[in-house]
Design goal:
single chain; Alkaline_phosphatase_core_sf; 5 strands; hydrolase activity; two-stranded antiparallel ribbon; three-stranded parallel beta sheet; 33% helix; globular; alpha/beta
Length: 142
């Protein structure tokens, strides 16, 4: 950034967790909610996601989107387990949006894929891609 580069990060952060104000009971309530309970847990999930974005910004990135806090182990995410899947399309679109941004300077983009890391990707292939750590994604898979 000091040399005029726009900086971006998308994908798996894997460099620490943001501080959470959630109690263990609240965290468990969110994690065990079904995807159909999204409206009941939305604000909590997005609060945690925005905390992760702030952490990535503090690390020096101008753009922090399409983030996973770590590998997709349930204990590491504040997201209903039913919504926790690898979502390569979501990450790729976030990278493409950063690259397409108009700018008059060079850029540096880190793209950290969740694959090939655990858990196994087989369940994610069949998963609904609209479920993401940042909420529902208005994707078009046609």
């Amino acid at each position: 950034r000091q040399r005029g580069y726009a900086t971006g990060f998308v994908g798996k952060w894997h460099l620490g967790h943001p501080r959470s104000s959630l109690s263990l009971d609240e965290r468990k309530r969110v994690q065990t909610a079904s995807a159909s309970d999204w409206k009941l847990v939305r604000d909590t999930v997005l609060q945690e996601y925005h905390g992760l974005q702030a952490l990535v910004h503090r690390a020096g990135f101008d753009y922090a989107e399409r983030l996973y806090v770590n590998n997709l182990y349930e204990a590491q995410h504040v997201l209903p387990f039913a919504m926790l899947h690898h979502n390569i399309e979501w990450i790729a679109e976030g990278a493409a949006k950063f690259i397409a941004m108009p700018r008059g300077s060079p850029y540096f983009l880190t793209v950290a894929w969740t694959l090939p890391h655990n858990p196994d990707a087989a369940d994610s292939i069949a998963a609904d891609p609209k479920y993401t750590p940042g909420g529902f994604w208005a994707c078009n898979r046609t």
